[in-house]
Amino acid sequence: TGGLLKLTSPKDTPHRQDSAYLLIFIMLLTLTILTIWLFKHRRFRFLHETGLAMIYGLLVGVILRYGIHVPQSMSDVVLECAVNASPATLLVNVSGRFYEYTLKGEVSRGKDHQVQDDEMLRKVTFDPEVFFNILLPPIIFHAGYSLKRRHFFRNIGSILAYAFIGTVISCFFIGLIMYGFVTFMKAVGQIGGDFFFTDCLFFGAIVSATDPVTVLAIFNELKVDVDLYALLFGESVLNDAVAIVLSSSIVAYQPAGDNSHSFEAMAVLKSFGVFLGVFSGSFSLGVATGVMTFTKLRDFPLLETGLFFLMSWSTFLLAEACGMTGVVAVLFCGITQAHYTYNNLSRESQDRTKQLFELLNFLAENFIFSYMGLTLFSFQSHVFNPMFIIGAFLAVFLGRAANIYPLSFLLNLGRRNKIGMNFQHVMMFAGLRGAMTFALSIRDTATYARQMMFSTTLLIVFFTVWICGGGTTPMLSFMSIPVGVDSDQEYSRRSTKHESAWPFRIWYTFDHNYLKPLLTHSGPPLTATLPACCGPLARCLTSPQAYENEGRLHDDDSDFILNDANVSSLYADVTVSTDASGSRTINPKPSAAGPFGENRDRELDLVEREVTIRGTRLVLPMDDPAEPPTTVTLPPPPSPPRSDPHRHRL
Amino acid sequence: TGGLLKLTSPKDTPHRQDSAYLLIFIMLLTLTILTIWLFKHRRFRFLHETGLAMIYGLLVGVILRYGIHVPQSMSDVVLECAVNASPATLLVNVSGRFYEYTLKGEVSRGKDHQVQDDEMLRKVTFDPEVFFNILLPPIIFHAGYSLKRRHFFRNIGSILAYAFIGTVISCFFIGLIMYGFVTFMKAVGQIGGDFFFTDCLFFGAIVSATDPVTVLAIFNELKVDVDLYALLFGESVLNDAVAIVLSSSIVAYQPAGDNSHSFEAMAVLKSFGVFLGVFSGSFSLGVATGVMTFTKLRDFPLLETGLFFLMSWSTFLLAEACGMTGVVAVLFCGITQAHYTYNNLSRESQDRTKQLFELLNFLAENFIFSYMGLTLFSFQSHVFNPMFIIGAFLAVFLGRAANIYPLSFLLNLGRRNKIGMNFQHVMMFAGLRGAMTFALSIRDTATYARQMMFSTTLLIVFFTVWICGGGTTPMLSFMSIPVGVDSDQEYSRRSTKHESAWPFRIWYTFDHNYLKPLLTHSGPPLTATLPACCGPLARCLTSPQAYENEGRLHDDDSDFILNDANVSSLYADVTVSTDASGSRTINPKPSAAGPFGENRDRELDLVEREVTIRGTRLVLPMDDPAEPPTTVTLPPPPSPPRSDPHRHRL
């Protein structure tokens, strides 16, 4: 029983080593947090926390690789058996006892590069599925949950164009350029293994997902234009989803014929079908789970928060179990929950869920970035091919350009509020590659092509995060993009141009009059918005709280009845008055509240106050979130510290 | 490359199945939360959430076992190779490519019971190390972090006696009884495998850890006597730690001689040494990490919370990596952090950390209990031996009695506030077995003896949680133990008897005058408490905030200078006046604030206000936590809604 005891004793060496390896990461994160604090304290903006986490990861990677030499354990036994398959589970018969082994993957003992199979490094480079199943979901969910929905939906057309059409363009553009490079390298004899066209396309898909977390943190701090922020954030959130579906469609198409890695029109169509099916399936699943509301648990915040957390996670798992993409599902689940479920939560649960996902996002993100740094040295099958790397950098640059400039030109034909050339340059520059690109490339490093892709991707991530991320502040001043813009005022000034877009208006009215009352306690009761013939149905679907709202709305709206024609003139007036006053004051928000805490509250408050009553639109821009909507009197007394021209207009 | 693609494609079947299995657990938790809400809403107290989670787990286990038949995958290949060892890693050479396999454990294909090796059931019964490394740490940390320290330290002597001496008595008592039973069963021929004396002792160790989570939830809701609560809670928290160290000491002793599973005085001494070493090592590690304070991050609650979380987790990992016990370390880390670090956190971080660990504890606990229910049917190597089960129930009952009654008798000789017979009966009855017992028994189910232990342990947990947990409310009324006792008043009334215990007083003064000022911002500055010769040292160790406190204290203490003699007369007066007034009002606390949220705040407030100034003790019992300590005026105006006799006395 000696062998058995060794396996199961709580203090056996492998277990202790695992703890030590995990401890390395925890220490890395701790170090990162302490340094971030120092940076924030000293207002040092050239290196974001993610870039910092990567540097620490790199340093520890160097130490692990060259500094520490753990004596090689002699436990590896090479079985030379007559098996012609590599099953997922293996039962080994050792003198009458059966031991179960699970497949971890292929160990490359290729002919061309010597592997120094170091057990420690192998263990530090742990299972990439961890990224997909544990680290990515909270990041993606948080992106959806903290989305500034108003700015997002105002630019929804452009965002969808960049995210869907742009990412597909970028993917194929990069794929084609890389295929040219690879063909050339094969002719020159610079490439040492198979590299098919599908591999090139796959590479294009994984490096097309942008992740401007660094840039957005700086934008948030400097209060850069909200539309630019919305375009970049929206694009990066959605193109993560697009890239993951795109790459898995390419992989799904790949094994059709083992030798036919060439281009086939039929197979591309099939891939496109897979893409559409998976994306729309994941989308509906996420929205469906998000829409499922729970309203009665308000008295027990702990239960409510727990349920909220479990529902979000089960969306991910359900999508994965159905063969769809959990990341996409969890993204739309987050957006839907922020829009509907959030209003039903008790105030304490609203805080708790926000803080919980903020923390999970923070930890997961920094973990991934410090892991990236570590991987550069701990991963043992790197293939650094200088020509491939140069080609990839060129392709990534051109692919981004092929996404941004032509699409912006086309979008500007339709947009009233044009995307200026300086905005386009910033979007081009802010195309950082981050967590999703890394996770997709480390997921499969079995073949030569994939190993080369992984090593190259790692360099692309490092370069973009350090150089592009660090250069954001100089870039903004070079492009003369104004900073210190107050999002609320900005919004009111611009709303005349945007929100009159009819698809947005129809959706907004439908959502506000029917969906919100049905799914939340806020908004007007359905009995007021539905036609009279649906009375009984409306009564049973409306929650008691909504009637309380109705009483208030009744009192207010008698004064406010305006028709749509008035609304546009009202907008025009507001614009004029703002410009005429000339003295647009910028309210500095307290920056201590973190990147998302305080702004988000305002965001929600403002969305609430943008009340539409029975088809009539009424905009009440208010700056003070503490003031409840019911206490509005006309005309309000001018508040001395702030010039507030919109309110005077009313 | 077909095989490779199958392994790595994101939509391959094993991955989807894993998601589905995890989804089962998430659904179980969701169901549990919804039912708990229903129970709380209807004030139904006979079944606690953990008992409920077990029932749901049982039901799903039955469905999985008998309802669903997944077609057996044919991927298992049995290799009949000439290996005479079972290494942790296996490299299999499949036609030139090397695949790495990791050992999962022994698959029992014993001769005596037919195994229907169902892959689904095997996967649902996942790696028991998950319990130790992921689920237990947050539960144990939360226990330490939410410990009501004042009541705990007041009864520290009795708690240590029950937890250390009591658990060791119980372990050996149960071990001896079981050894008798097993010897008898061997003689009768009722036992089908090896069962040594060390196995009996191991069984004694794992079933000696009590976990009265059910009972304490009811105690908290009914406001049962605070001393009884403190005794039960303190014992259960510490005996988890004792049991885990005890069981690993027994295992560490076991492999010394494979055939000498008999009793040896020398080996027992060695085990005892291991026990002491591991316990004190883990204890110091936990306290050391807890003491490490971070004070400058207050401006960034997200960073602060993140750091707090990472520090707690790294304590666990560090202890495991050093060959100590992470659970013990994390427990004392939690207690220390609640005592010192908590005071340094910003208010927002205090809320965030409390809520985070409350949520983690809630999820982990319910997960473990629903998993327990599931395991009864999904685990495939159960050995239910009726005689062993009867013996175990008897031994557990007698072992608990041998712990409680003799120790209470001895403790009552020294205690001024005796532990009454009704209290002893309740403590006897409340000896539930829960998460720790389960985790220890599932950790190793390789041998026949361990499998029989596991099955028996499962039944013991079910029985105690359902019967003893459900019977708590009737038991309390049967034993005529008063409910609805307000802990603050109770404390003031009793304090005269307890706190005069000199070790407690010395520790309290030392902690308050030197440790708290050194480690936190609260308490008097060191410049005031240290002798004059240490002036420069004191100045550099005291934080600026502490001087602000000093200013306030100076103003106040001129009126309040009392010496120790006065203090005891003050106590006596308070007691008399409380009793004389006769109208002890019980302030009903709002129960919506959850089991720990609101009470804890009060707890901390009260500890803060119990100010000791330069060796002089001063007790200011105040009920209103919103009132800051500086605003105390003498005599305070009587607050109309509450009778507050203590304040009038002053």
Automatic annotation (TrEMBL), chains A, B:
Comp. bias (Polar residues): 579-588
Annotated localization: Cell membrane; Recycling endosome membrane
Superkingdom of this protein's organism: Eukaryota
One Pfam family hit: Na_H_Exchanger
Record's GO cellular component terms: plasma membrane; recycling endosome membrane
Keyword annotations: Antiport, Cell membrane, Endosome, Ion transport, Membrane, Sodium, Sodium transport, Transmembrane, Transmembrane helix, Transport
Keyword set includes Kinase: no
Region (Disordered): 579-599, 620-650
Predominant location: membrane
Family: Belongs to the monovalent cation:proton antiporter 1 (CPA1) transporter (TC 2.A.36) family.
NCBIfam families (alphabetical): b_cpa1 (TIGR00840)
Protein name: Sodium/hydrogen exchanger
Organism expressing this protein natively: Cyprinodon variegatus
